[in-house]
Amino acid sequence: MPVPNTSQEVSIYSPEAGLVFSTRSFTKKKKKTPCPWCFLIPSAMASSSFSSSYSTATIALVLLLLVLLGSSSAQLSTNFYSKTCPKLLTTVQSVVKSAVSKEKRIGASLLRLHFHDCFVNGCDGSILLDDTSSFTGEKTAGPNKGSVRGYNVIDDIKSEVEDVCPGVVSCADITTIAARDSVVLLGGLGWDVKLGRRDSKTASLDAANSGVIPPPNSTLSNLVNRFQAVGLSTKDMVVLSGSHTIGQARCVSFRTRIYSETNIDSSFAKTRQGSCPLTAGSGDNNLAPLDVQSPTVFDNKYYKNLINQKGLLHSDQVLHNGGSTDSLVEKYSKDSDSFDSDFAAAMIKMGDISPLTGSSGEIRKNCRKVNS
Length: 372
Fold this sequence. Notes:
Elements: E1 5-8, E2 13-14, E3 19-20, E4 26-29, H1 56-74, H2 88-102, H3 105-118, H4 151-164, H5 171-185, H6 205-208, H7 220-228, H8 234-241, E5 248-250, H9 251-260, H10 266-273, E6 287-289, H11 301-307, H12 314-317, H13 326-334, H14 336-350
Antiparallel strand pairs: 1-4, 2-3, 5-6
Helix pairs in contact: 2-4, 2-5, 3-5, 8-14, 9-10, 11-13, 13-14
């Protein structure tokens, strides 16, 4: 069935949050949502005279399965706290704005914090939990230790939010909003954040170490597979990788690339070698910008860098290395509006990964520990 093409303005200003996201518009396709569960419905039920041979129990089972399949995402909404915490968005934005004004890098850190939370058992705030006597959390996992930052900003936001509406807003939702606000404050396009997540009551070091978070030496196939495992497409993967237009990486994560790989601009590699010694253990934590052109501005220059073989991480450059994703990289390098709109859509989709809703989980009082 042909999909109609309609041009519309993005919802890019939130009066409640006081954030002006952008004045750009983009074209969106209105897609008819497929019915992934239709195979469960007996074909006879499509007609007005389906057979009475289908028992009441069978029909009830089908209806129950439909409810279960769509329940969690359906409980997230952009106005979830409109009555219970009307000052939520302005409160979060104020704290994030203050943090970013002091250190722009923290915006990238908050965005990454949300990503690392969602890829391990869903967007449930589990990454924020400190270790306890009953479990070892995710903070010391390989992908997180020494690199994931921003926990203190989430603490500050939670404290402010608890002052205006105690016991109402989850740490998982705070992390999600903070990621959006960080993108906006650094020049990116905004989006309406779906809310209603609840917080996990545990965390898992093993889950965080299991490979679900793609490492910086990932192959293209590993990136595709890891994103597909959480319901994100190859296109989502390429556009979300564009978050590397802001932030920095440690020498230990790109040392092999700048000394051993051939698909890298020689002058770029030499510059990076100046602060990242070849010897392992020497300068491991020295930082370099992921986007050599504009590391504190959320734009599409990351993709331009890849075309010029100036991707800092191996997992960056594989996106444009004669493979299946080259065309997407080239598209985003030329079309900043497409990048912005597709990034916003993919962030909303990522925020839908396995949320705890309804009576599952809890609303933590302190983001670092479960309620007693």
